[in-house]
Amino acid sequence: MSTAIDQPRQRPLLVANDLRKHFPLKGKLFGKKSVVQAVDDISFEVHKGETLGIVGESGCGKSTTARLLLHLIPPDAGEVVFDGKAVAKPDGITPNALYRQMQMVFQDSYASLNPRLSIAQSIAFGPIVQGVPRKEALDRAVSLLERVGLAPSIYANRYPHELSGGQRQRVNISRALAFEPKLLVLDEAVSALDKSVEAQVLNLLGEIKSAFDLTYVFISHDLSVVRYISDRVMVMYLGKVVEIGPVDAIYRAPRHPYTQALLAAMPSMSPRRRTEKAPLSGDPPNPIDPPSGCRFRTRCPFAAPVCAEKPPRLVTQAGEDPSHRAACHLYDPVAAHPRAQEVRHAQPLSA
Amino acid sequence: MLSPFPPDPAEDLNTTTSHGTANTAPLVSVRDLHVRFATRAGSIAAVNGVSFDVLPGRVLSILGESGSGKSVTMRAIAGILPKRTTTIEGSIGFGGTNLVGLPESQMRSIRGAQIAMIFQEPMTALDPVFTVGSQIAESVVRHEGISWTEARRRALDLLELVQIPSAARRMKAYPHEMSGGMRQRAMIALALACKPDLLLADEPTTALDVTVQIQIVLLLRELQRELGMAVMFVTHDVGVAAEIADELAVMYAGRFVEHGPAVDVIEKPLHPYTAGLLASTVHGAERGAVLQPIPGMPPDLTRMPPGCAFAPRCPYAVEACRAAVPQSVAMDTQTVACHRQADGSPLGPLG
User: Fold this and answer.
1) Distance (Å, whole) CA B340 – CA B327
2) For residue range A115-160, what is the model confidence (pLDDT) as tens digits?
3) Model pTM?
4) Site from B19, B71, B211 to mutate, A interface, most A CB atoms within 10 angstroms
5) ipTM for the complex?
6) Which of A69, A15, A59 is nearest to A37 (CA)?
7) How far apart are CA A60 and CA A235, in angstroms?
8) Which of B211, B242, B282 faces A228 most closely, judged by CB atoms?
């Protein structure tokens, strides 16, 4: 399943290099202007055929990352490389050409569709704009509707408001597929759906992934769904990557104290095994002027002076899977964290 | 933690009530509740014959998907459905008074004092132009007629009770100055201001991040136990229900399809809908395995099918299911409204 691990030397389909996006806020009359450090120098790769899950809480920058990947907003620094070509660079790939290979599905299925276009017109709209003959685009729209489980005879001429949330999301998926893209970015694509419908759409995503030979970047706040669908998982906190690795490593042996807290905060699903103590107190801090050094240190049970001094690097652990990396001074010998010996041999932490 | 309320000798009796004790009079006794809304699209049958009791000091969680009528049931008890367009039939007994048809002036003195409500979005309960402290104090002055000085002291105790850090300073804060989790705590403090016997909670943790959600769930559990109040907790999230509920009711198309101790409903669901809902919840599903979603969609509430509302989606449905609405029957500790469980050929626990 995970081509990433089996073939490490294959060229990644998508690379993010030191991506940064800071949003300036309206300046105060006096004093310095504040910025929201939505995404701050993050790097990762997406390999062909895999699903990379991105998890994190509100304000961690996961949706900004999605928009940067698609060049819907230009990065302040860094670059996106798609299939070996840098996006919007002189000898790279233009954003327009990128959109044909990479598409996005959003959370709000209704806002994503033009209310004045019928379902078939919505799906055909993009290809027509990109120069596909009208007849051909509409025919393809009909076959795509069939493919996502919506009978074209019933749905092709309906309008978005006549459909349920789950059906609209199927339309959004078929619209994304209309370009025959290589990669789909799914930004909370199933989060607004009821559980029984969510399961239907997750099954559909699994089917079309193999049928169309797709690669997914799957963004969600739902840890169970990310575990279910992902090959690798990236955990974000306040605009930084705190941990990235194979899904089983992240869920079974999380290293970063934030990842551990996030997983411990999941409801137990059984009244017999209730959560006794909340793993973290308070809310995630504001991404405006985040803490110095490690951004998690204000809520971290392991915080030491070194954590305030310098930001942690993403490091691997000796003798462990090198694709599993965590940005925590506990695991970085150079940082000389006073409690580092407690986490040797990747034992699960307990504060 | 110290309670800001004077000790109440009756309370100990309430908190020690065990499930199903016959000699405890129910606090809430709903019988054959029907709620219909008049809309331009026709009459919407939101609640279609719901009967249940809530014992003092117990937590009943109502689990359901959007449109199942769980919020409407609770809003009918709180008496906050729009009068002009709503028809309510049946009875809602609360401490011996029938709330259906009660004049608004009487309802107003019950609501806030004996029945309080918290919401998903705290700004629906908090007034943006008054400080948090003065809003809580106002509620105490209004219902208990004590002095403002005393009411402010009570408000401070309440903010401490809901574990808001530096509560004295937060008294003077406006709602917009607080983070999401803090606002949720302030709303809970406001709801508890007059020590209600019944707290109605409408998805109070749904909009929160996972690390904050568990804090609020644990807080509510602790407060419920400490104050001995009864809680009705509406949610779409099985995990949250499992964390807080003594009893669990599952709603579908305006009816209770199953009701019983939370452990039993989750571990051995008797209604095919409950089983389907649990099976389509991704939690614990094998990664990449095909999920078993419930096919189809919930019925159109303007055109309810004559028999069991779940029959069109049910793998066990037979002719009788489409003919008549199933009655709730007792099976072990649960009650279930399913013809197949009631007709002498029990399906046994499902899922």
Assistant:
1) 11
2) 999 999 999 999 999 899 999 999 999 999 999 999 999 999 999 9
3) 0.89
4) B211
5) 0.88
6) A59
7) 9
8) B282
